[in-house]
């Protein structure tokens, strides 16, 4: 994409977001870390935060880097362990078994099938704490936003393995169950480590 096309795409994103240029500039001036680009070998744990992009080569950036392939949007990161989870860029409405099959064959956006899985209920709760940052990042790259709906997890109920926990972005804890044969929103996650 040439510079002129990139600028037109940026203007289009800003117009569709409902924000003014002044609001965006003010936001970026208050959050300069969003403009950082960090390579896989030069990242410090202070550089990584939810809402940043994870690229297929291990690069992490708050900016869209057109020459690189975005694999996901970071949803959580542990500075102590230097590990994180990122949402994949695609989602669907599937049953629990079909979701597991879809992710076992998931080979999009530079990811391999063995990398992607359903999130656990605790991982999804942690990632949804950063819902707004994730939504902004998805909007900027014109990918499907997280729905304001319940999402399947990999966590089954200990009293009945045919029931799984579902979590919505507004939930503070996992307390809703659904049968494995019912359809629900699914968005996979993948783990990454910064060295």
Which helices and strands appear, and what pairs or packs with what?
Layout: H1 3-17, H2 21-30, E1 37-38, E2 53-55, E3 60-61, E4 70-78, E5 83-88, E6 92-94, H3 96-104, H4 121-128, H5 131-140, E7 151-157, E8 160-167, E9 176-179, E10 184-186, E11 189-193
Antiparallel strand pairs: 1-3, 2-3, 2-4, 4-5, 5-11, 6-10, 7-8, 8-9
Description:
- With 195 residues, this protein is an alpha+beta fold.
- Helices cover 27% and strands 27% of the residues.
- The strands form 3 sheets. Strands 1-3-2-4-5-11 form a 6-stranded antiparallel beta sheet.
- It starts with a helix and ends with a strand.
- The relative contact order is 0.17.
Give a brief rundown of this model.
The protein is of the alpha+beta class and 195 residues long.
Which structural class matches the secondary elements? alpha+beta
Radius of gyration: 17 Å
**Overall geometric form:** globular
Percent range for β-strand residues: 25-35%
Q: Identify the strand order in the major beta sheet.
A: 1-3-2-4-5-11
Please tally the helical runs, counting DSSP H or I stretches of 4 or more residues.
5
- Share of helix among residues? 25-40%
What can be said about the biggest beta sheet? 6 strands, antiparallel
Round the mean pLDDT to the nearest integer and report it.
85
Low-confidence stretches: none
Distance between the termini: 32 Å
Reading the helices and strands in chain order gives HHEEEEEEHHHEEEEE
What is the number of strand segments?
11
